[in-house]
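Hi both,

Apologies for the delay on this - the queue was longer than expected. I finally got the adenosine-5'-triphosphate-bound model through. Below you'll find the protein sequence and the ligand SMILES exactly as submitted, and right after that the structure tokens for the full complex including the ligand.
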Amino acid sequence: MLRDVTFAIEGGDRLAIVGPNGAGKTTLLRCLYRGVAPLEGRVEIDGQDMADLTPRQVARRVAVVLQEMPADFPFTVQDVVLMGRVPWREGLTGWTEQDREEARHALGHLDLLSLARRQFSTLSGGEKQRVLVARALAQNPEIVILDEPTNHLDIRHQLEILALLATLRLTIVTSLHDINLAADFATHVALMQSGRVTAFGHPDDVLTDHAISGIFGVLASRQRFAGSASSQFSFSLASS
Ligand SMILES: Nc1ncnc2c1ncn2[C@@H]1O[C@H](COP(=O)(O)OP(=O)(O)OP(=O)(O)O)[C@@H](O)[C@H]1O
């Protein structure tokens, strides 16, 4: 259950939702892409209540990359990425050249062209994750919502996917467990605990030692490096 959640982001912002297991990150994301309707309150996109939009109107503006992957999915990588074009399809016509071009472009962006003809079900977890991001990009959305997009990825692909998302002129809303990745990637952070957003703002203002220590029940300490904008959190158990 979410309570008292109010925030706004602008086009082009990158929002990371950070918080412990069960804090409500996935539930908040579901509300944002209209996977569930809020019991109270509303989600607006450009001042319009999302509930007033058709699923197709939402899908043309918002692409979603979820953690759950279909186990047995008899499609090739190329087919899966083309599915991102469904909201743009008119009537019962087949794929247009533009659909195929958008899909190719997205596959190239995610370094997946060599896997285009493979069965999706035969890919590794990380490869599947990249295919689902490619499908979201082929959808040509304004907003991409991702639930733990780096979950199955090795460190290089984690950095690559977040760097790619950061270079696209899209609005990104993503849950992230890795606080260091969130601090580097996001323009805004929403810190969540027990269904509430307890802090919202610039990563430097929200991701403080005190806030992270309190919310996760650990000792968090952020080290900043001389002459560099980057920083690194280190963590230890509060009792150790
Ligand atoms: N469909 C549901 N019915 C009942 N409770 C639910 C449902 N979905 C989520 N919850 C509960 O709501 C709370 C928030 O869950 P949510 O999945 O949003 O957390 P989360 O922050 O994404 O957690 P995690 O980091 O573990 O993925 C949890 O206590 C969860 O058990």
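Main takeaway for now: Residues 208-240 form one domain.

I'll put the files on the shared drive as well.

H.
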